[in-house]
Specification:
With about 400 residues, the chain is of the alpha/beta class. About 35% of the residues lie in helices and about 20% in strands.
Length: about 400
């Protein structure tokens, strides 16, 4: 990802589904105007989902997801299909490509049914009209069977692509995101102090994504951002000459920062803000108390959306397990999921602890929260958990309670 590009997690995810050799990769190339997906007459060229970021005006930044064919065969084919279907859990919008030379099959009917059950807007692309004549009646009949708009196209000849884009834009309108990270908590002109420790896991030469996104939103809404290190916080507050409206800190230094920030200055963390932005903060606050019910032998899942290498004092794999064992005194087993992996079977866990999810789009995080809720497994995120363990959960969520009162 380029330094100045919109993060993939903040882009509208448009997933492309269809049988093998139906022209999904050709369609990606046609929509983007670039040869970025491998096109081959050999079936099964696309194996794992392929992501391509682009701008689709007036929607804005999107990511197109090219998937393996739904009619893949064999043991490896079944694995590819599972990965294809897993894309549904992060898709905001879908395109189902139909081969005009072969017509509808159960593969298209089944995937459209699954897409619609998840309330994902979907558009059909009837491809290869350069090889066979497709009448308006044929299109209308397909639309009637699938109960969705369908656009006749030739991906290889760039025919119908603009019409397809217009259909996508129309379908994307209800998907507009409403949640913000800090907006609604503060007013234009408010001063915010951000406490940013720099540790081994921080990327060289730049800030981690949640910090970048918070700073950008503060600037977008006309607020003043003051960034400092944890050891310089007291001096920073002294030099300001006025109280900031909010202090936002990395959760790992909650203990030190909570001592340095006067009680009459609201305090929270980047991770807790992301629980509000991409999760369900209210539920996570309630479920933090599930830690009190942990017993010897319980399994706890720690889920991280990114795939950085484990550090000596890694927050997810080292610090959090240690803090929980110290708090509970129980012999607890910790299991870990990283990147796009998330277990299908959750009911074996007594608790799920999730990162701030800055690398997941909101749809993917909503899926994980919903799956945990379906299986009655409590879920918290790093910031909520750390605040609870350090006895400051009420303090660092006060600003959100005030927000709820005003609604």
């Amino acid at each position: 990802m380029g330094l100045f590009k919109t993060p993939r997690s903040e882009r509208l995810h448009i997933a492309i589904f269809g049988r093998r050799n139906v022209g999904k990769s050709s369609l990606i190339n046609a929509i983007t105007g670039q040869e970025i997906a491998t096109v081959s007459p050999i079936k099964g060229t696309t194996t794992d989902p392929v992501y391509k970021s682009m701008e689709l005006l007036p929607i804005g930044p999107v990511v197109l997801i090219d998937t393996a064919g739904l009619d893949d065969s064999g043991e490896l084919g079944e694995l590819r299909i599972r990965k294809t279907l897993d894309v549904l859990n992060k898709a905001d919008l879908a395109i189902v490509v139909i081969d005009a030379t072969e017509g509808l099959s159960d593969f298209e009917r089944d995937i459209v049914d699954q897409i619609q059950k998840k309330d994902i807007p979907v558009v059909g692309a009837i491809n290869k009209i350069d090889q066979v004549q497709v009448s308006i009646e044929d299109v209308r009949n397909t639309e009637s069977q699938l109960k969705m708009p369908c656009i006749p196209i030739s991906a290889s000849n760039q025919v119908g692509i603009e019409e397809l884009k217009k259909a996508l834009i129309s379908a994307a309108k209800p998907v507009k995101r409403q949640k913000k990270i800090v907006a609604g908590l503060l007013e234009p002109g408010d001063m915010v102090v951000l406490v940013v420790p720099i540790d081994e896991s921080a990327p060289k030469g730049r800030l981690i994504l949640p910090q970048q996104q918070v700073i950008r939103e503060l600037l977008d809404y006309g607020m003043v951002a003051v960034v400092t290190r944890e050891y310089a916080l007291l001096e920073t507050l002294r030099k300001l000459g006025q109280k900031p409206k909010l202090v936002i800190t990395d959760s790992q230094v909650f203990k030190q920062v909570s001592k340095d920030v006067p009680r009459d200055i609201p305090l929270t963390s980047f991770s807790i803000l992301f629980a509000r932005y991409k999760g369900d903060l209210g539920e996570m606050l309630k479920e933090a108390y599930a830690i009190e019910n942990l017993k010897d032998g319980d399994k706890v899942l720690v889920a991280e959306a990114c795939t950085h290498h484990k550090q000596d004092e890694d927050i997810g794999q080292v610090k959090i397990p240690r803090w929980i064992r110290e708090k509970t005194g129980k012999n607890i087993t910790f299991e870990f999921a990283r990147g796009g992996d998330f277990p299908e079977d959750l009911d074996k866990y007594a608790l799920i602890i999730h990162c701030g999810a800055c690398m997941l789009n909101p749809k993917a995080m909503e899926y994980r929260i919903g799956k945990a809720r379906e299986e009655s497994v409590p879920m918290v995120n790093y910031g909520v958990l750390i605040a609870y363990l350090q006895g400051i959960l009420d303090r660092v969520t006060e600003i959100f309670r005030e927000e709820n009162k005003s609604e």
